[in-house]
């Protein structure tokens, strides 16, 4: 009897080892490639479309240089953050499942509260930005088809509201994916789409340069006279926020790292995925931003694809816009998951009874487990982001604000402070001074980019009526 019980116990243990990690959570299956897909989905997003405009505000010298600096800062601080996934020992310490949990465990105190506010406001704002981007691309397809079917006689004015609502309906459906572990396929599809529209934008810009017969642009960017001194200043500051947004993903790095299987250590895999992802995205950013600026010069549009208007081959622009829509559907989910999970975890802890699932039979498919609380809460979340997007549908301005809010605290401050404490970096040592200097400089960048972006929103709101914007 004793031997039988012992054998049963061993079998049970073996099964558990295959299905669960050492902390009794479901076994992680992520690899360097799935992690890279998540990162590229988050980083190589619609921010690439604003980079030609951002370079136009700075010129040929400062623009590409600042973009490269942002990429290096993001790569460096991401490596610091990866070392904070496990508390104490980077390879064997207790796992932190979320960015906020890492801050709570390592720093604690007010940092915990500050991180929660900044991270979740940033994630919520990103969802709003992606709603605007998705709607603009859907409208661009509709206008393009309208323009060509009428032979250019119809101005094809279109309200953005139906398209934002349509995007919201799509997100209500996809928001029912429970967590990161079950949405790897969506990230891979979104990654493919981001490469698609980036390559099309690049190809169209190269064709435009060939058509012009020369490179446009100047060493100092938009000149005073074409715009006022104030507009030049605000535009420069806002472009910093746009570039910061283009590289923003640190706030979900820990969540992505928590999908990676071990061994090898999650730190090693995450650093490799970060290196691959930042390298790939920076290459695309440089190519798209610089060719876009070379094609349009100082008049580069806020959304690069809109600059090609309804030129032939218009169907290629339509494909690019369709790829953007598919991409932002996935990116919206990647950025929303940490916020959705945080609210659900807190609510279930307080009211355990709400965490009930109901099995729904679907003919021809396996039964679907409906969590009523998750369905209602996530639907409300999508509705609110859609409404706010309809109220403030300014793509470039929103990207600038989001980038400036999240860049310093999430990409620089918390990773630096956590790493210093985790690795016991001695105060006033050469390394400590360098890391704190980097943090201070990035704080200044966040402040000035935020001022520029808010100033632009204020100017746009002067001639704007909510829910009535047409393109």
From TrEMBL:
GO terms for cellular component: endomembrane system; plasma membrane. It comes from the Eukaryota. The chain crosses the membrane at residues 32-53, 60-82, 121-141, 184-207, 276-295, 315-335, 375-392, 398-416, 437-459. Pfam families: Aa_trans (PF01490). It is a multi-pass membrane protein. GO terms for biological process: amino acid transport; auxin-activated signaling pathway. Keywords: Amino-acid transport, Auxin signaling pathway, Cell membrane, Membrane, Symport, Transmembrane, Transmembrane helix, Transport. InterPro entries: AA_transpt_TM. Belongs to the amino acid/polyamine transporter 2 family. Amino acid/auxin permease (AAAP) (TC 2.A.18.1) subfamily. Belongs to the amino acid/polyamine transporter 2 family. Amino acid/auxin permease (AAAP) (TC 2.A.18.2) subfamily. This is Amino acid permease 2-like. It comes from Cicer arietinum. The gene is LOC101498858.
């Amino acid at each position: 009897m004793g031997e039988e019980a012992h054998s049963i116990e061993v079998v049970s243990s073996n099964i558990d080892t295959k299905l669960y990690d050492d902390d009794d959570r479901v076994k992680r299956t992520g690899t360097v490639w799935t992690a890279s897909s998540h990162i590229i989905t988050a980083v190589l997003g619609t921010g690439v479309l604003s980079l030609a405009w951002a370079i136009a505000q700075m010129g040929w010298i400062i623009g590409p240089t600042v973009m490269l600096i942002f990429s290096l800062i993001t790569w460096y601080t991401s490596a610091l953050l990866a070392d904070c996934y496990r508390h104490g020992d980077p390879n064997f310490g207790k796992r932190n499942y979320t960015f906020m949990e890492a801050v709570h465990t390592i720093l604690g105190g007010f940092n915990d509260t500050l991180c929660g506010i900044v991270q979740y406001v940033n994630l919520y704002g990103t969802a709003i930005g992606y709603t605007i981007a998705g709607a603009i691309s859907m409208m661009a397809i509709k206008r393009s088809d309208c323009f060509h079917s009428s032979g250019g006689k119809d101005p094809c004015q279109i309200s953005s509201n139906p398209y934002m609502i349509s995007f919201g309906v799509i997100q209500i459906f996809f928001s029912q994916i429970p967590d990161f572990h079950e949405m790897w396929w969506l990230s891979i599809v979104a990654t493919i789409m981001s490469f698609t529209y980036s390559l099309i934008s690049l190809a169209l810009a190269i064709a435009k340069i060939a058509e012009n017969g020369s490179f446009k642009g100047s060493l100092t960017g938009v000149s005073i006279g074409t715009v006022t001194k104030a507009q030049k200043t605000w535009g420069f500051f806002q472009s910093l926020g746009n570039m910061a947004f283009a590289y923003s993903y640190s706030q979900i790095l820990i969540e992505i790292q928590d999908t990676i299987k071990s061994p090898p250590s999650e730190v090693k895999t995450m650093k490799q995925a970060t290196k691959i992802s930042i390298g790939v995205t920076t290459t695309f950013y440089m190519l798209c931003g610089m060719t876009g600026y070379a094609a349009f010069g100082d008049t580069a549009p806020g959304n690069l694809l809109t600059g090609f208007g309804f030129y032939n081959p218009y169907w290629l622009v339509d494909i690019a816009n369709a790829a953007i829509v598919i991409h932002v559907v996935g990116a919206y989910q990647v950025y929303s998951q940490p916020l959705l999970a945080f609210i659900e975890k807190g609510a279930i802890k307080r009211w355990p009874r709400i965490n009930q699932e109901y099995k729904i039979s679907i003919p021809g498919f396996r039964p679907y487990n409906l969590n009523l609380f998750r369905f209602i809460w996530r639907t409300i979340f999508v509705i609110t982001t859609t409404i706010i997007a309809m109220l403030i549908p300014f793509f470039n301005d929103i990207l600038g604000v989001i980038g400036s809010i999240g860049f310093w605290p999430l990409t620089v401050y918390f990773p630096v402070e956590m790493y210093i404490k985790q690795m016991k970096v001695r105060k006033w040592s050469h390394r400590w001074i360098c890391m704190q200097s980097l943090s201070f400089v990035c704080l200044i960048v966040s402040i000035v980019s935020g001022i520029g972006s808010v100033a632009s929103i204020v100017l746009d709101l002067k001639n704007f009526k909510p829910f009535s914007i047409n393109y």
